[in-house]
Amino acid sequence: MGPHIPAMERVPEPELMEGREQAAAYAAADFSASDSAVVARLGELFPEGLGPRVIDLGCGPGNISFLLAQLQHPPALVLGIDGSDPMLALAEAELRRRSSAEPALADRLQFRRSRLPDPGLPGGFSAVVSNSLLHHLHDPAVLWRALAQLGAPGCRIYLKDLRRPADPQAAEALLRRHGADAPPVLQHDYLASLHAAFTPAEVEGQLRAAGLASQLRVAAVEDRYLEVWGRLAG
Ligand SMILES: C[S@@+](CC[C@H](N)C(=O)[O-])C[C@H]1O[C@@H](n2cnc3c(N)ncnc32)[C@H](O)[C@@H]1O
């Protein structure tokens, strides 16, 4: 047996992205490639669509919520939730801007300030989507309990997040590969997020503990992501 090399330990980062400069830099960044990849993957996993009511957890400035609101015909009602006031303000400003050209958008897309866990959120969603939220949560069980609270029977689930690299050098290499041109505040956040992320094995353990292991699957994707998908029991 070779020497035991300990995996890099998780270092949580602040849950909410509440800095105004931080939120503005995030909203200004171009995540269109990874956002489109989320939408394309939803189409592969759920070719029949996401159903009538979709919730986007930790929606940030709403980049994915806006795509979800355009995704299918008839369109779904989409609710984006986030616990950060600056992020929500950016999402709502963008909704006002887009609604002036397309008034019907405001009828099917809403944003709401909500910090998970939030027993006040309604249930009965036909799909729960979340991109880059899990690694922010100090207690990841909050997300798995939220699925049971929010999802209707048979609810479609798709969550994507970073996965934690093996060591700090691998995290630095990912930053150089994917974030070298980003402004300093985003480079700082990206590195912190890689250190705060979970491994696929840890997420599998979280799903077992939450009683979701037979409903949801976990896989590593590309060099830095993991995804969790499936349907809640009908
Ligand atoms: C990295 S951003 C992702 C934003 C968006 N989903 C995207 O894909 O670009 C993570 C967001 O999760 C929010 N967040 C973190 N913890 C939360 C919690 N407990 N409840 C609600 N939102 C939370 C943060 O405020 C932040 O806006």
Q: What is the element layout, followed by pairings?
A:
Layout: H1 20-28, H2 32-45, E1 53-57, H3 63-69, E2 77-82, H4 85-101, H5 105-108, E3 109-113, E4 125-131, H6 141-150, E5 151-162, H7 168-179, H8 184-196, H9 200-209, E6 216-221, E7 225-231
Parallel strand pairs: 1-2, 1-4, 2-3, 4-5
Antiparallel strand pairs: 5-7, 6-7
Helix pairs in contact: 2-3, 7-8
S-adenosylmethionine (SAM) binds at residues 15-17, 31, 58-60, 63-64, 82-84, 87, 115-116, 131-133, 136-137.
Describe this structure in words.
With 234 residues, the chain is α/β, with parallel strands linked by helices. The protein is built from 9 helices and 7 strands. A 7-stranded mixed β-sheet has the order 3-2-1-4-5-7-6, with helices on both faces. α3 (63-69) links the parallel β1 (53-57) and β2. The chain is globular and about 55 Å long. The protein starts with 19 loop residues before the first helix and ends with a strand. Residues 15-17, 31, 58-60, 63-64, 82-84, 87, 115-116, 131-133, 136-137 line the site of S-adenosylmethionine.
Strand order of the largest sheet: 3-2-1-4-5-7-6
Which structural category do the helix and sheet elements fall into? alpha/beta
Q: Segments where pLDDT lies below 50 for 5+ residues?
A: none
Biggest sheet character: 7 strands, mixed
